[in-house]
Amino acid sequence: MAGNKPPDALHLLRSMTQSFSTLSYDGVFVHSEAMNMNSMRVRHGLMNGVEYESLVDLDGDKIEVLRIDDKIISVYPNAMVANTRAPLIPPFRRFKDVESDRLIKGYEMVISDNISRIAGRKVVAVKLVPKDQYRYGHQFWLDEENHFLLKHDMMKKDGKLLERIQFTSVNFAPDLKEKDFVPKEGSYAESVVDTPPRRVKNLWQFDWLPKGFSLVWPEARSLNHGTSMLLLSDGMTTVSVFIEPTMKPKSMSILNMGATIAGERSIKVKDQLYLLTMVGEVPEPTIEKLMTVFMPRPEHD
Amino acid sequence: MKALNDDLSENHSSREKGNSLDVNGYPDVLPSLSAMFDGEATEQDLECLLNADSNDISRQLENFHLIQQTLHKESSVAVGLEGSLLSRIRAELDVDASFSDVQDNSEESNLLPFVLPTESKHASRPAWRMALSSVAIAASVTFVVIFAGNEMLTTESQAPNLTADVRSSLPDMVVTPLAELDGEALQFDNVKLQHYLRQHAEQATMTVGQGMIPMARVVSYPIKE
């Protein structure tokens, strides 16, 4: 391992981020976590000024998630169930840069001297070592030529692997056509109506946050069933916060799904109970602690 | 549990023959029960269970339990499960109906109306669809009932090998629940959780700089098979 080289590591991460939206690619990767493993095909292309992306599960039912510019469509093999929606804000294109200030607060960044091969291509590895116990470690293996992400490990602080994504093959000169991103005959997809995001005043705050974490949006997002959503990030991982009125008191419970942790509890503000749910790829103690320091903003704010 | 599920699946596969009487002359709820445990319960199956005599369900559950006892050579006997099963089915139907009402009445909906199945096909991975549909009411009932069924048919020493592990806070956890909260049993609302997990995955795609790859997690979220 080489010594710390934050500027170089940041440059690689920045380039990795951009490669997802600027490159055309057609690849197969394996996603594994806990006892689950799925192989998936991802395709991405820019055609006539429109960005197309497709993620298809290759195991079991052939469910596909399509993205055409800022619209996400879920496609099912048959007309079983379907749910399509426009995301709250146009995805991916908001990536102008990696959030280096946050990253530096939370991680040591190390570039490996070793050049290895993933999916038949030479890679360079970047490791993000967490500076505290409130986040996981990451290692990225990037294509040496175009810095496309070919392998990603998420690890506990002690090095135990939590989640891995690894490409087995990838083609950076795919012959993609618009029709490749049209749901196949016999499959089912719902047309999409683009709904403007509804931004509402954030009435909540955290009394504490791990270093580097902050709210991604200054305001809250109103979801469709009376739920407000907030988003925290340290530049590498995210924690989603959902808060909604409820009638039922609940003490804290934690749901562990590989690298993803979900926590739920009710909190009482004056005479109103609220159900607080947090979801994120962070250690359990982070979710637990965040849930205890979540509170309403003072009314004069 | 796998062997038991296989056994139930055999019963389920025979339900194409239609409802019949069992050897004792009782209406046979076994096909609907087995369909439920297989994650393939249709509205008719749920209707059948809700309308069935609780003694019939109790008898079938005892049969299932005897099969499990045989397979696992354990001696504890499950009793009084039928009421719990029916109440949970009814509770889930109530919850889902109210959830649906709220969605339908919302003026700020970001979600398009979902489409319920027009026909029931073999569901090899029901939770898969749950993960990606998030608001599929019929499927969500199946999902929850499967979970409840596994809980009922498994003793503590033989807990199902679930991907998701729910636990309450430990006594030494740095958590101070508000004094007003009671000690009610903890249970995530699966439909809502799937919706939140999907929201989370979508936002992660916009925030962590890995394109659509974080969406891969959605299909790996809680799987109950």
UniProtKB/TrEMBL annotation, chain A:
Residues 201-291 form the MucB/RseB C-terminal domain. Its main location: periplasm. Residues 8-183 form the MucB/RseB N-terminal domain. One of its GO terms (molecular function) is antisigma factor binding. It is found in: Periplasm. Keywords: Periplasm, Signal. GO terms for biological process: regulation of polysaccharide biosynthetic process. Pfam families: MucB_RseB, MucB_RseB_C. GO terms for cellular component: outer membrane-bounded periplasmic space. CDD domains: RseB (cd16327). The keyword Ribonucleoprotein does not apply. Belongs to the RseB family. PANTHER family: PTHR38782, SIGMA-E FACTOR REGULATORY PROTEIN RSEB. This is MucB/RseB-like sigma(E) regulatory protein. It comes from Marinomonas foliarum. The lineage of its organism: Bacteria, Pseudomonadati, Pseudomonadota, Gammaproteobacteria, Oceanospirillales.
From TrEMBL, chain B:
Residues 32-97 form the Anti sigma-E protein RseA N-terminal domain. It comes from the Bacteria. GO terms for molecular function: sigma factor antagonist activity. InterPro entries: Anti-sigma-E_RseA-like (IPR052383), Anti-sigma_E_RseA_N (IPR005572), Anti-sigma_E_RseA_N_sf (IPR036147). Pfam families: RseA_N. Residues 1-24 are annotated as: Disordered. SUPFAM superfamilies: N-terminal, cytoplasmic domain of anti-sigmaE factor RseA. Residues 9-19 have a biased composition (Basic and acidic residues). This is Sigma-E factor negative regulatory protein RseA. It comes from Marinomonas foliarum.
